[in-house]
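Batch manifest line 421
LIGAND: pyridoxal-5'-phosphate
JOB: complex structure
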Amino acid sequence: MDHFLYRHGELYAEDVAVSEIAAEVGTPFYCYSTATLERHFRLFDEALDGMEHLVCYAMKAASNQAILKTLAALGAGMDVVSGGEYARAIAAGVPGDRIVFSGVGKTADEIRATLKGGIRQFNVESEPEMEVINAVALELGVVAPITVRVNPDVDAKTHAKIATGKSENKFGIPISRAKEVYAHAASLPGLKVIGIDVHIGSQLTQLEPFKMAYEKVAALTEELRAEGHEIKRLDLGGGLGIPYTRSNDAPPLPVEYGQLIKDTLGHLNCEIEIEPGRLIAGNAGIMVSKVIYIKEGEDRSFMIIDGAMNDLIRPAMYEAHHDIIPVAEATPGVEKQQYDIVGPVCESGDTFAKERVMDPVGADDLIAFRSAGAYGAVMASEYNSRPLIPEVLVHGDQFAVIRRRPTLDEMINRDTIPEWL
Ligand SMILES: *Cc1c(COP(=O)(O)O)cnc(C)c1O
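JOB STATUS: finished
ARTIFACT:
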């Protein structure tokens, strides 16, 4: 459920007409709904009721300061994957003891900065990384709390580019080597082992892969405890999928996911952490664009819009589907049309949809890409010297630009000319 609905023949974001935002901000832009962000966070929080837990929003999905502050105000922790994300989380007022640091390539500088600023735990992905965290912790005279990310070798049954829990993926250490790696960790004086971490992929639409992974984590917890390790926290990653179309089978709900966690891991009396990103932000955001031309090709109509792959790369990168709707609601009974929907960038990959059947639109009409809140704005670039796409946050009947569009001068002036030119 989200808060982008037609009212009086127009698309609204909560109580604001999307056309009103477009008139003020220009197109293209991202628009997020506060109520939807909050609702999705609460669904996870409530799904884990009865277990000690922390929902750490995976902020790589959408990391604007205003979004982070909205979630932090509800008590969210953050899952960060870089020193930059850590700095953003701190800047948004998230305390260090609610920030977990994931990722396969943490550098010594990033580890130092987070240990100084305060960190809930490192999710360690390799033995070389373990050595570096140990060395930096000793240098600073602190002890770094860690979990080890285990790779359970399960098939997440998702797009290959976002599956992370198979042995061929770069993530984590093989679960078969876990005992050895935990023994090594326990021997390093700068580290304190506190738990286990697992994250098997993104946009999972079934519970079965989670179940297989969490059962392996449960067994590992018992084995590691038997070896004398204190396993008190289980970080279960993110990955629960969202419905990108209205027609397909809906993915499991957070409450069903929460029940699975209770069933597979509840008996261990561990504190539970989860790291949802997409399910919190995905359906809480739309990308709004304007039709520039309808161009009749030989056998198809091209809808050429002012948004492009640099603004929303998911279709080009993951063959992702986004529902695309006109901002002005079509008259009931009007005949649908078929379009290839493309941006102006000079690449054939700059195609959002082929042979998409939808309500008819014409030049200058606004359209909205639904479910664009996660992995949308954060992956935007200025390719083709297109200004970085702005972001807007709606809250009831108010809206605010939370990242403005840069001017062309600002973009040009970021370049510097060497003295020999
Ligand atoms: C990307 C990622 C997440 C979030 O995944 P979603 O599919 O957006 O929920 C959580 N944890 C880790 C370690 C990740 O890399």
